[in-house]
Amino acid sequence: MQLKTTNFRKYKLLLIFTLISCGCTYWHKVNLKFLFPENYEGIVIIAWDEENGAEKVMEDDYEVYTIPKSGILKTKVPSRSLDPMDEKFYSYNDKTKRRTELEVIYLSSIGDTVRITKKNQYYQVGLMSSGHNQKGNLIFFLTRDIKSKFMDRAYREKYIAEHEEELYSTK
């Protein structure tokens, strides 16, 4: 009888631990909204945990990241999961403050056959998390050109390596 009770306690503790772990994972996922300058194409870097970075901005249940023309946004927000609950992408016009929702097509390689057919469609390639000075960053490329050199993974990695200091020194 003692053996059955011990096994039951082990399973009960395992179940409780699993439920707590799953619950914590769920609650740490966030909704993200990215705003890009109108007609922007190029590298996008969000540098998390930056002392002189932008404060956290919220709209409804979304964390909002307004990407400047340089493509590099420094933020005080702690590093984020790359698996958000929901993501939305918009272009914005500085003068009119008008936003246009973008339809982002995630490409895994140049071999993908999905083609842009609308003005508000873009390809997102190279989604990755990278470290710089022991801090995490979100890096990807946004383009409308299926033949962009940024479609090539080796080129993207070489580009980042060659321009790292320049990219991260932008204010």
Automatic annotation (TrEMBL):
Q: Domain DUF6843: where?
A: 31-122
Return any one Pfam family short name.
DUF6843
Q: What is this protein called?
A: DUF6843 domain-containing protein
Organism name: Pedobacter westerhofensis
